[in-house]
Predict the 3D structure of the following.
Amino acid sequence: MQTTKQLGFTSRITLKNRRLAEKFSRQETNPERARQIYLNTLAVCAVDFYCQCMGIETDLQASDSWDGVMRSLTNVADLQLKNSGKNLGKIECRPVLVSSDKVEVPPDVWQGRIGYIAVQIDESAKEAKIVGFAPKVNKEMLPLKQWHSLEDFLTLVHRLKQTEPQGENIVTKLSQWLEGVFEPGWDSLQPAFRNAGGTMDSLQPAFRNAGGAIALKGSEQNIGVPYDYPSVSIGRRKQIDLEWAGEQVTLVVVLQSAKATEIDIWAQIYPTNGKIYLPQDLEFMVLDETGEAVMQTKAKSSENIRFEFSGEYGEKFSIKLALGDFRFTELFSI
């Protein structure tokens, strides 16, 4: 990573933000974790204010750092960026004290981010200074001198706005997932999905690893039961806003290389924001390359829905959600 001249941005740590950080930190009983949550919240607030000043749309409520369960499970400080209501991806806002010259970036957030912003917290002066940007991170402690200028962050956002990397505009290449390459907007299943037994709920789903592949292929749905995934499977999740309906759901895609020419695929949706059930009239479909629905169901009073199927390398398909006049389609290639 090349060092560039820093273009900083300093803002006041307001009383409102301090009280919010204190509120979040009080939800954690471990003093060290509580302190980290406090600093993470101040960092996210600072980046959110910076984005507002730069005309960049954000969504705090769609960020894991604003979710009590996610904060309790991991060291997260993300901020969801948007453009005209569409997700651009998440930026990770990492705090660093004025006494330190290195920024901690935990492995939990090395994936599922379009970039990272370092925020220097000066508690005595009640100031937060955004000091650098990093497009990628692969080590836990990154010296400040190795962070890029904020101009690189603004360039990235401009490029994302131009290309609009949304589900209906790009193709998600599942074969690349097997190589550890994931498109922006697809977040890790960990820690939201724990490798422990138990039934799924809307806040803290627990997917259990099994010793082998699921025998049933092409099943239209499995609703309200504990799920077994192969221990060698790879999965990601994406939050989807159902726009006018004011609803959100999470789409989970898990895959496993079954044969030399074939991949087993599991596609699942479940509610977010503490809700137990999916929107009653939500339709969940898997379409083939011609756009014909080959698997389809309606949520009704379901807590979650999952499809199981397989496909050959080179094949294309799409997953579609429909609720009233709202339509969302995610394109995939195997």
The chain has two domains: 9-163, 171-333.
